[in-house]
Amino acid sequence: MVSKIVECVPNFSEGRDLDKIEKIVQPLRGKENVKLLNYEADKDYNRVVVTVMGEPQAVKEAVLEAIGVATELIDLGVHEGQHSRMGATDVVPFIPIKNMTTEECVDLAKEMGQAIYDRYGVPVFLYEQAAATPARKNLAKIRKGQFEGMNEKMKEDQWKPDFGEAKIHETAGVTAVGARMPLVAYNIDLDTENVDIANKIARCIRHSNGGFRYIKAGGVKVEERGITQVTMNITDYTKTSVYRVFETVKMEAKRYGVNVLGSEIVGLVPMEALVDSAAYYLGLYGFSMDKVIEARLME
């Protein structure tokens, strides 16, 4: 039995070519002490979010192999999509799940960062809890400028990578590796094609503009469906609930005559985040994870 369990959620900049996606996730299948839990591709974002869990070193080696495949197959010089990106493997967060501390995930992130550069020549930034400086804790600040502007950005002393030379990999760009608690990747659909409205609503809810403390958000247009989304990461669902964000977006949308069509979770989500919202919408008194059968079985 595995005594320590870590989760890793690498994001790869490919959401349209299913053959490439399958090749990227293949190294995560059939490995001892590694379980591929989920992978979701989005054509508009042109991105696939992968969730893998298992013994820390086994997960690190399996994900490192997948990063190698992505480095071979993805060329950011021709990549287009709604989601901001700076690397073929854009981000690699490690999340403590069982008998793991954040500090151990930080150590794992540093090992991974060094290995990515040594093996594939892709420069690496450390972010969130693994960040070397406060300025690098926020992933959005690291990613600003994206692939196209990263070479120029890395000429500045404060933006030299933590691992590797201050020069992007010609096709794979740069990668951010970090350690963090579980987050909720959450999108809310609006019945408008006007992305300006989605962006205005995103500005109301995100922390950087005076909104909720643990929200990073933006607006995107989903061409295929003829809608826009307020797309976000809830970085601490215990402090900012999913239902609170959803209700606020509904309220803000009304001022523009726009309706919320629904919402989606990208990747996996902690049960506690949904239990909290269920208790709110059902008006449950004194409800908690202690009353969830699956949670008791896992004790």
TrEMBL record:
SUPFAM superfamilies referenced in this protein's UniProt entry, alphabetically: Formiminotransferase domain of formiminotransferase-cyclodeaminase
Assigned GO CC terms: cytoplasm
GO biological process: L-histidine catabolic process to glutamate and formamide; L-histidine catabolic process to glutamate and formate
Presence of the UniProt keyword Hydrolase in the record: no
All residue ranges annotated as the Formiminotransferase C-terminal subdomain domain in the record: 182-296
Domain of life: Bacteria
Associated pathway: Amino-acid degradation; L-histidine degradation into L-glutamate; L-glutamate from N-formimidoyl-L-glutamate (transferase route): step 1/1
GO MF annotation terms: folic acid binding; glutamate formimidoyltransferase activity
Formiminotransferase N-terminal subdomain domain location: 4-181
Keywords: Cytoplasm, Folate-binding, Histidine metabolism, Transferase
Family annotation (InterPro entries): Formiminotransferase_C, Formiminotransferase_C_sf, Formiminotransferase_cat, Formiminotransferase_N, Formiminotransferase_N_sf, FormiminoTrfase_cat_dom_sf, FTCD
EC number: 2.1.2.5
Enzymatic class: transferase
Classification via Gene3D superfamilies: Formiminotransferase, C-terminal subdomain, Formiminotransferase, N-terminal subdomain
Locations listed in the record: Cytoplasm
Protein name stated in the entry: glutamate formimidoyltransferase
Organism: Vallitalea pronyensis
Recorded name of the encoding gene: ftcD
